[in-house]
Structures are given as structure tokens and as C-alpha cells.
Design brief:
heterodimer, A: 244 residues, mainly alpha, B: 250 residues, alpha/beta, 4-stranded antiparallel beta sheet, 40% helix, binds adenosine-5'-diphosphate, binds magnesium ion
């Protein structure tokens, strides 16, 4: 049955978006989350993005065997596939592993050690206090990370293409600028925001409804990553179908 | 004063509480005792709204908690302090931040006033100067004391304590028991302590409720216990040879 967890998830989200007790405490938490989710993930996003661009360029060049197609098309293909699919989706999958598992184990540990009960007893809306700052932090920072990822990915493609001699610098840059459709960036940002929401809310849900002990915290965190990844790819398809 | 009336709670097809009624007076330290799995924690959680009872009422000085909505409950929750079995300190925060947390959330005091209150509470539990330690740096007994300090920071009218002595050595256990007892009398708090520790029962049990098979099996004081003819209570209290010998001397 998928309907029972789905209903529980929606009810949790309803509680998350209740009016905060005190905005200035939430604001502090949001900055903290922006730092840990966003700044804390720049390194890994940078590394995977550069390689992603390099691989895309080399493989696209390999597939272009006909002399009738200008080499500059490599630049266009790298640009579009990076913006539309690779940067937002691969970044989101990587962040589901990094950020999602940490959110779920943090909240799950708070659940099994009764820290969430302690919040409730004090009269604090625990879903709001624990989850809202994470969602807001991620929805602000993950799109920025994706922009960084696009830039580095294209840079990686440029380096790999010119170093290997698959495409000249001029051709690559010409390809990048030719036939650019700004709407692809809009689609990319829609995806990023959606993925950010999925990673944080799904992982928080898994953590929030953990019961048991350390073992169950581990299980929740695994499940957070798996469910986030599947939901990301499903949403990816939906957005592509609806917007393109 | 807290009154509970006919509390029922079932998990799946396992009926844990089968209609429990009791009254807890202000300034009294009331104990709920019973074997492991007898539903003590469940009863406590039903009283504070961490579980919804299937049936029954919980009255805080006449206000029926079970009938209130989320917002109305917050008003009563601000008057409730709770000490959890594992202390449940927020482990991302220092001792000071833990105790100050409810003050930050619910009062408009400035930092100096809040710090004064934090230090007062820390003094009260004999932990002055431990402000900047993290929970991971504390011993079990110290965690419990910080838990008490956090529970009393908002000057609660009602205090709930779940197994205050679990995981503590006997000497520390008595310190915690005494502390809870003193605070209860000093501030005229309605305190409800769940325990299966016989030292606590004999030491501070002026009012005791014994749970058995989902029912309130027995009610009385620690002096009555020694002379009870209730077989289930006898089996529970005097389970060990040592306590049997102690009873025979009484
Ligand atoms: N959330 C829950 N879901 C299902 N069963 C529970 C839950 N909480 C407690 N129980 C069951 O209720 C019974 C009483 O548990 P509890 O109140 O924790 O006992 P005690 O605190 O007296 O040791 C146990 O049999 C336990 O398995
Ligand atoms: Mg218990």
C-alpha cells in the first residue's frame, strides 16, 4: 500500500508549514542549514560536475563519426544535456546520498532518543522546528549548487575536449552559444527546486517516523536515500513531460 | 492537580491500558509503579498527549487536555515539564542552550534575564559552571540533572518523570530522587514519577499507584505496601529474597 505512507507524508508536511513559534529562531536554523546543506556540498558537487562534463564531451565526440556534422555540435550537446538533465539530476542523486541520509539519521536519532518527544512536551511544533529550516535551506541552496555544477561541467567539457583534440576551442565555444534556448535554464531551475524539496522532505519523513533504536535509524537512512532517488527520477520525468 | 478518568489505550489488538482513573495532587510526588511492559510509560504519554488515549479524560486543574486542539494544548504544555528516561537532551546544544531553549521559544526575556534563570536552574541541580559542556561530555547522573534543570526552567506546574533511576548507580539514584522530591515541595508542583525501582518506592513513595494487567490494581503509601495482602503487588515488590527479608523486619 502506497496510500498510507503518502497520506502520512502529506499530514507531516501540513504540520511542517504551520506558523513558526518564533521567526528569529527559525531564521537562525535556516542559515545553519544553508551552510551545512549548501556550503558543505560545494566540494563534492564540484568534483562530480567537472568529471561529468569531461565524460559527456569525450563520449559525444566518440559518437559523432560523420564528417558532415560540424564539431561545434559537441558544445551544444554538452550544454543542453548538462543544463536539462545531467547537472540537476546527478547533483540531486548525489545530494540525496549526502544530505538526505544525514537529515534522516539526525531526525531519526532525535526520535529514538526521545528528543522529539521533549520538543513536543515543551509545546513546540516539532515538524516545523526540525524540518522547515531544512526544506527552506535546501530549496535556496540546491539550485545555486546546480548552477555551479552547470558552469563547472561545461568547463570540464571544454578542458577534456580541447586537451584530447576531439574539438577545437573555437568550435566548442561556438557550439555553446549557437541555438541556446533560455527556457532550458527555467526547466533546470524548476527541477532543482523540486528535487531539493523531495530530498529534504522525504528524508525528514523517514527520520521522523523511525521507531526502535540505532538499527532502525540506519534502516531509515538507507530508505531515505532509496525513496528520494526514485522520487527524483519520477519527478524528473514528470517535469520533462509537462514542460518540454 | 491532575485527574485522569477511565483511560483506555490499545496498540493494534494489544490492550495496554484498560480504564485507569486516579488523582494527583499539587505538591505531592506521586509514583506509578508496575512491572516492565505494564503500561507505565504508555499511561504517562497518554497524560501528556504524546499518545492519544482511545477513551477517557485527562484534567489539568479542570481543563480536559484530550478535548483541546493543538493551539490550546500549547498553553498547558508550557506548564508541563518532563524528565525522560534517557534524559533526551538536545545533543547539538550545550547544557546552557538546552535549558535556555524553552525560554527562547516562549518568553520575550532578554539574554541577561534568561542566563540568570539558566544559572539558577543549574545551581538548583548542583551543576553550576557546567554551562558550556555538551550532553556527550556528561555522565548519566549529570544528564538527568540537566534534564531536571531544563524541565523546571519554565517554572512548570506539572512535572512528569519516567524512570528517573534507570542506568544510575544507587547513590546517584537517591540524589536524583531527593532532588525531584525537594523541587516538588518547594514549588508545589504536581509531580508524577514512573518507576520500577524499589528504593524509590520505599524512599519517596508517599502516594503510590500500582499498575497490573492494564488496571489500577492497588493504591496507597509506602507504609501500606509492607502490609498489603494484594498478591500481585506482593509478588512485584517482594520479588527478591533481599526485599522479603527487609519486609519481615518491618
Ligand atoms: N508505540 C507502541 N506501539 C505498539 N505497542 C506499544 C507501543 N508503546 C508501548 N507498547 C506496548 O505497550 C506495552 C506497555 O509498554 P510501556 O508503557 O512502555 O511499559 P512500561 O513503561 O511499563 O515498561 C508493552 O507491551 C509495549 O510493547
Ligand atoms: Mg517505560
Amino acid at each position: 500500500m502506497i496510500f498510507y505512507p503518502l497520506g502520512k507524508y502529506i499530514l507531516l508536511l501540513k504540520a511542517v508549514f504551520r506558523r513558526p513559534e518564533k521567526w528569529n529562531i527559525y531564521r537562525k536554523e535556516i542559515f545553519h542549514e544553508m551552510d551545512s546543506i549548501g556550503v558543505g556540498s560545494v566540494g563534492i558537487i564540484a568534483i562530480i560536475s567537472i568529471f561529468l562534463g569531461m565524460v559527456t564531451t569525450v563520449q559525444t565526440a566518440f559518437q559523432l563519426v560523420s564528417d558532415l556534422i560540424p564539431k561545434s555540435i559537441i558544445g551544444s550537446i554538452v550544454r543542453d544535456s548538462t543544463i536539462l538533465e545531467l547537472s540537476p539530476t546527478i547533483s540531486a542523486i548525489v545530494l540525496a546520498g549526502k544530505v538526505g541520509s544525514s537529515i534522516s539519521s539526525q531526525i531519526g536519532t532525535m526520535r529514538v532518543t526521545e528528543q522529539i518527544d521533549a520538543l513536543e512536551i515543551m509545546g513546540i511544533n516539532s515538524p516545523g522546528y526540525l524540518i522547515l529550516p531544512k526544506i527552506i535551506g535546501a530549496v535556496i541552496m540546491i539550485p545555486l549548487l546546480v548552477i555551479v555544477s552547470i558552469a563547472l561541467s561545461i568547463l570540464g567539457g571544454y578542458i577534456a575536449g580541447t586537451l584530447s583534440g576531439a574539438v577545437t576551442s573555437n568550435d566548442f565555444i561556438m557550439g555553446l552559444t549557437n541555438g541556446f534556448i533560455p527556457f532550458t535554464v527555467t526547466v533546470c531551475m524548476v527541477k532543482s527546486v523540486l528535487f531539493a524539496f523531495i530530498i529534504t522532505s522525504v528524508s525528514a519523513y523517514q527520520g521522523f517516523y523511525t521507531s526502535g533504536g540505532a538499527l532502525e535509524v540506519g534502516i531509515s537512512s538507507t530508505r531515505a536515500v532509496v525513496v528520494s532517488c526514485i522520487s527524483i527520477l519520477f519527478a524528473d520525468y514528470l517535469v520533462a513531460q509537462l514542460l518540454l | 492537580m491532575i485527574e485522569i478518568k477511565d483511560i483506555h489505550k490499545t496498540f493494534g489488538d494489544h490492550s495496554v491500558l484498560k480504564g485507569i482513573s486516579a488523582t494527583f495532587e499539587a505538591g505531592d510526588n506521586s509514583l506509578i509503579i508496575g512491572g516492565s511492559g505494564s503500561g507505565k510509560t504508555t499511561l504517562l504519554k497518554c497524560m501528556v498527549g504524546l499518545h492519544e488515549p482511545d477513551q477517557g479524560a485527562v484534567l489539568y486543574d479542570g481543563r480536559d487536555f484530550t478535548r483541546l486542539n493543538f493551539k490550546e494544548r500549547i498553553e498547558i504544555r508550557k506548564e508541563i515539564g518532563m524528565l525522560f528516561q534517557g534524559s533526551a537532551l538536545f545533543d547539538s546544544m550545550t547544557v546552557e542552550e538546552n535549558i535556555m531553549f524553552p525560554l527562547n521559544m516562549f518568553t520575550d526575556q532578554n539574554r541577561r534575564e534568561k542566563l540568570k534563570r539558566v544559572n539558577f536552574c543549574l545551581d538548583r541541580v548542583n551543576l553550576e559552571g557546567k554551562n558550556n559542556l555538551y550532553p556527550a561530555e556528561l555522565s548519566g547522573g549529570m544528564k538527568k540533572r540537566v534534564g531536571i534543570a531544563r524541565a523546571i526552567s519554565m517554572q512548570p506546574k506539572y512535572l512528569f518523570v519516567d524512570e528517573p533511576n534507570s542506568g544510575l548507580d544507587p547513590k546517584t539514584a537517591i540524589v536524583i530522587d531527593d532532588l525531584i522530591n525537594e523541587i516538588t515541595e518547594e514549588y508545589q508542583i504536581t509531580t508524577v514519577v514512573v518507576t520500577h525501582d524499589m528504593n524509590s518506592v520505599m524512599g519517596i513513595g508517599e502516594r503510590i499507584i500500582f499498575l497490573f494487567d492494564g488496571q489500577k490494581e492497588w493504591e496507597g503509601t509506602n507504609k501500606d505496601i509492607a502490609h498489603t495482602d494484594n498478591q500481585n503487588l506482593n509478588d512485584f515488590v517482594f520479588a527478591s529474597k533481599f526485599t522479603q527479608a527487609a519486609r519481615d523486619k518491618l
